[in-house]
Amino acid sequence: WPVKGPDGEIKDFVEVLRPSAIAEVEPGRGLVGQSLAFQRMLGCLDRVAPSETSVLLLGESGTGKELVAHAIHESSERAAGPFVPVECTGLPESLFESEMFGHVKGSFTGASSDKLGREAAAEGGTLFLDEVGDMVLAEQVKLLRLLETRQFRRVGSTEPQKADFRLICATNKKLGQMVENGTFREDLYYRIAVFEISLPPLRERTDDLPLLDESTLKRLGSSLSISAAALECLGSYPFPGNVRE
Question: Crossing angle of helices 36-48/65-74, nearest 10°?
Answer without folding.
Answer: 40
